[in-house]
Write a structure and sequence with these properties.
Blueprint (H helix, E strand, L loop, with lengths): L1 E5 L3 H13 L3 E5 L2 H10 L4 E5 L7 H10 L6 E6 L3 H10 L3 E5 L3 H16 L5 E4 L2 E4 L4 E4 L2 E3 L3 H12 L7 H8 L9 H14 L4 E4 L3 E4 L4
Helix pairs in contact: 2-3, 3-4, 6-8
Length: about 220
């Protein structure tokens, strides 16, 4: 899953980004509203964390601009604890959730997980396909009751496919959502990781749809 953090406080931005990366996400970052708005309009993020008190362009204006362009990326806004009016403005502009400053990193991570699940139509923190279970809270993958050790790339690939069960996901889409903007993207590497993932899982839940991409059937 690929996320964008738009926060002008460099220390806080670094803290949020580091926590998200440790949790297995790929993260791009911006430090003002203008840069954040541009990235949100041009890159395919799975979720965006957006501070409202941004320089150049404020967060509410950025969010309004995205929604007017019909950009539906889920957004969590960051607000000061005593500015309840900011929360109202944020929700009216199209925010999906909010976190008040100061906050515990664990709360932000939990809200990100919940937002990604809801966006993909999953109610539970555990996604199940046949004998494969992916626990979004712990980042664990279990097959037939046995934990499977995956690399970060393999986990991100499986997580994205399982979040989007029942839909064909192209190699290009996977490349865009599994790597940040600075990565030298090559969709051929996706085939390598799919092959490794199939071997480690030991069950055939990832279908190759020739010429289109990959599919995990929800009824597998």
């Amino acid at each position: 899953m690929r996320l964008l953090v738009v926060e002008d406080d460099k220390d806080l931005n670094k803290q949020i980004t580091s926590s998200l990366e440790q949790a297995g996400y790929v993260v791009d970052k911006a430090f003002d509203g203008e840069e954040g708005q541009f990235l949100g309009e041009t890159e395919p993020y799975d979720a965006i964390i957006l501070d409202l008190g941004l320089p150049i362009v404020d967060g509410v204006s950025v969010l309004n601009a995205w929604r007017k362009q019909d950009i539906k990326t889920p957004v969590i806004i960051l607000t000061a604890r005593d500015r309840w009016s900011d929360k109202v403005q944020g929700f009216d502009a199209g925010a999906d959730d909010y976190v008040t400053k100061p906050f515990h990193t664990e709360e932000l991570l939990a809200r990100v997980r919940a937002l990604l699940r809801r966006a993909a139509g999953h109610a539970s923190s555990e996604i199940v396909c046949g004998t494969v279970r992916l626990d979004t809270r712990s980042g664990r993958v279990i097959v037939d009751g046995m934990p499977i050790k995956l690399t970060s790339h393999e986990y991100r690939l499986l997580s994205y496919l399982m979040h989007h069960t029942g839909r064909i996901v192209s190699r290009g889409e996977l490349t865009e959502h599994l790597y940040d903007q600075d990565f030298d993207r090559d969709s051929n590497t996706i085939e390598v990781f799919v092959g490794r993932l199939r071997k480690k899982l030991g069950v055939d839940i990832i279908q190759t749809i020739r010429g289109l991409g990959y599919l995990i059937d929800a009824n597998t």
